[in-house]
């Protein structure tokens, strides 16, 4: 299994707290940003391979996480 970065762990923990799935998050981010976002894209964010600012900001907003990544 691929290693999950710290931000990925925050996302996963928050989804558990909210009793929501990754699929729900994918749909919410796509709706919020109007941009293409799928499970592969989320997986790369969870592993820390990419951190597209607009997508990260949307995830933080939806999950009510602090957006102090950079």
Explained architecture:
This protein has 70 residues and is mostly helical. 63% of the residues lie in helices and 0% in strands. The chain is built from four helices and no strands. It has helices spanning 6-18, 22-33, 39-46, 53-63. Helix 2 (22-33) crosses helix 4. 11% of the residues are buried.
Roughly how much helix do the residues carry, as a percent range?
55-70%
Q: Radius of gyration, Cα only, in angstroms? A: 11 Å
- What's the average pLDDT? 93
What's the shape?
globular
Distance between the termini: 26 Å
Beta content:
under 5%
Structural class: mainly alpha
Low-confidence stretches: none
How many DSSP H or I helices?
A: 4
Number of strands: 0
**What is the makeup of the main sheet?**
none
Q: What is the ordering of alpha helices and beta strands?
A: HHHH
């Amino acid at each position: 299994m691929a290693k999950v970065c710290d931000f990925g762990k925050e996302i996963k923990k928050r989804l558990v707290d909210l009793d929501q799935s990754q699929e729900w998050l994918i749909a919410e981010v796509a709706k919020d940003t109007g941009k293409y976002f799928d499970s592969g894209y989320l997986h790369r964010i969870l592993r820390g391979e990419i951190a597209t600012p607009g997508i990260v900001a949307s995830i933080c907003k939806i999950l009510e996480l602090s957006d102090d990544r950079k």
